[in-house]
């Protein structure tokens, strides 16, 4: 007998709340701690935002849990790939770090969209700078862990839903 029944809607709303917390932490670091985000940081925030929106829609829609779980995991894994690139750039020897770019505002105003997107996804010299370390890991490394956890969290709904349906029989 299950005392607590698994609820995919609640699970997705919890994932959405986690994404909101990650975005709030990014805003705190930018506006309170005055850490200026690099292009890869902004790309990671957009991936967190998209994952959170997918989780929100999944919680509201209350149908097609498997589809939302897979799409949410894909979104989180895209974010994880951006974070992996960021961590890789931070571990390059100084002579192999790409050149710094002009500010993002300048890039958005003067560069073609394709070049701007490429810059946002590949990173620049600013992305190699390490602004802070917590428990031995950089901010992009913690973001990578968060993305992997979000992907597992999303896919876990499939397993939990199937497991709860089997035990209810």
From TrEMBL:
GO BP of this protein: protein folding
Disulfide-bond pairs as recorded: 38-41
Periplasmic side: 29-46
Record GO cellular component, one term: plasma membrane
Primary subcellular site in the record, as a coarse category: membrane
InterPro entries: DiS_bond_form_DsbB/BdbC (IPR003752), Disulphide_bond_form_DsbB (IPR022920), DsbB (IPR050183), DsbB-like_sf (IPR023380)
Gene3D superfamilies tied to this protein: DsbB-like
Cytoplasmic topological segments: 1-11, 161-169
Residue ranges of the TM segments: 42-60, 67-88, 139-160
Keyword Disulfide bond found: yes
UniProt topology in membrane: Multi-pass membrane protein
Domain of life of the organism encoding this protein: Bacteria
Keywords: Cell inner membrane, Cell membrane, Chaperone, Disulfide bond, Electron transport, Membrane, Oxidoreductase, Redox-active center, Transmembrane, Transmembrane helix, Transport
Subcellular localization, as worded in the UniProt entry: Cell inner membrane; Cell membrane
GO molecular-function term, one example from the UniProt record: protein-disulfide reductase activity
Protein purpose: Required for disulfide bond formation in some periplasmic proteins. Acts by oxidizing the DsbA protein.
HAMAP family, sorted: DsbB
Family: Belongs to the DsbB family.
Protein name: Disulfide bond formation protein B
Organism field: Methylomonas lenta
Lineage of the organism: Bacteria, Pseudomonadati, Pseudomonadota, Gammaproteobacteria, Methylococcales
Gene: dsbB
């Amino acid at each position: 007998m299950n005392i607590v029944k698994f609820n995919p809607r609640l699970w997705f709303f919890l994932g959405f709340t986690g994404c909101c917390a990650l975005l709030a932490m990014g805003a705190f670091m930018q506006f309170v701690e005055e850490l200026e985000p690099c292009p890869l940081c902004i790309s990671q925030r957009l991936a967190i935002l998209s994952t959170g929106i997918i989780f929100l829609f999944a919680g509201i829609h209350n149908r097609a849990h498997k589809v939302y779980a897979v799409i949410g995991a894909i979104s989180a894994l895209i974010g994880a790939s951006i974070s992996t690139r960021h961590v890789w750039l931070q571990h390059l020897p100084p002579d192999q770090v790409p050149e710094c770019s002009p500010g993002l505002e300048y890039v958005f105003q003067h560069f073609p969209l394709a070049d701007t997107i490429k810059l946002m996804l590949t990173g620049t010299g600013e992305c190699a700078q390490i602004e802070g370390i917590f428990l031995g890991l950089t901010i992009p490394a913690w973001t990578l862990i968060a993305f992997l956890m979000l992907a597992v969290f999303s896919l876990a709904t499939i397993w939990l839903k199937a497991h709860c349906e089997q035990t209810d029989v």
